[in-house]
Amino acid sequence: MPQKIEQVCFDQSIQPIDPAAVHQVKLASDRMMPVAAYGTFHSDWAQNYMEEATAEAIRLGWRHIDTARAYENEEVVGEAIRRSIKAGHIAAADDLFITGKLWNGHMNPRDVAPACEATLKALGVDQIDLYLNHWPWPNVHTPGCAGEHRNPDAVPYIHEAFMETWGEIVKLKKAGKVVDIGTSNHTEATMKLLLRDVVEEERPVCNQMEMHPLMQQTELRRYFESEGVVCNGYMSLGSPNRPGRDTFKEHRADMLDPTVQAIAAELGASPAKVALAWAAQRENKSGGFVAMATRSDWIRDNLSVATEDLLSPEQLQRLCGIDANNRLIWGQVFLWPEADGDWRILWDDSQVFETREGYAKFKASWEAHNKVQQETTFKG
């Protein structure tokens, strides 16, 4: 019987990595961002370990911390930062590059500034290095909800409304509350609209998006980067302990893929290191990745791939050839009624609206059609 691997184990004897050895990418603002970001998405089971795990990540050399109000643990991350300063692992919070995110429920223009202030207070910092709009629409879900959850007030992307939110995010930048601004989960259509309607200093410098060996999004990434928008990938390890609402029978596990396993065997490395090395080296090392672990050895291993080229060009090419468009975050809990239950509409740009009026016309047409369909379709 295989030995069970302990998922939580903090070992102070494991030596740290020099943060200066970690590869960085230049943002459009000319600021440098460490490509390896320690993720604090809790996946429920890890919530009780997040403070110690984040502090351990900082001890081991991670200097980019990825947070979000939606993770419901900004105060815990803030305590880990204070703990790291007290232990002497960093001199001040300024030694870290912190990414924060504006949650969907705070996208009303009047809520943006208070939400950012709450994040600053929780983290115990005066400024956030990179502030992302978490999702393109203000659709919220109940914390810990099941996959069947739906918000009847959910709406698609309405550019007119988004720009009102973005204007408030820009104000945060101008006020010095955040240094750089960006997006998360934007599509090509929504990004084109945003870039069309902003001046140079209001452009996003980064988009965070799902990227892993079985979901590479190469064309979308190349579009963003052609516009000067750096891409940072989440779900970099396939998040095997993600919530049940994001787990479906169609999903494949990146670290069990035969090519990933074969290259891991060739290198004498773990499949996780192979997946993250692919993330760090692909597209001429132009982007980054987010990864979380709660074991000291894994935390260090995950960072080490950003300090060296583990993969040969041939191995990297083989990994770039296994893309299966295997999206793990369907986002079905954010669906609006007119999507008619099809999660792919969240991502395929088929329901993107410039104005509230345009959406209202579409909604009225859809409701009339849907009423006829319900009245006339055979229910046998």
Automatic annotation (TrEMBL):
Domain NADP-dependent oxidoreductase: from-to ranges: 39-320
Signal peptide span: none
GO molecular function, one term: oxidoreductase activity
InterPro entries the UniProt entry points to: AKR (IPR020471), NAD(P)_OxRdtase_dom_sf (IPR036812), NADP_OxRdtase_dom (IPR023210)
PANTHER family: ALDO/KETO REDUCTASE
Protein's recorded name: Aldo/keto reductase
Annotated organism of origin: Pontiella desulfatans
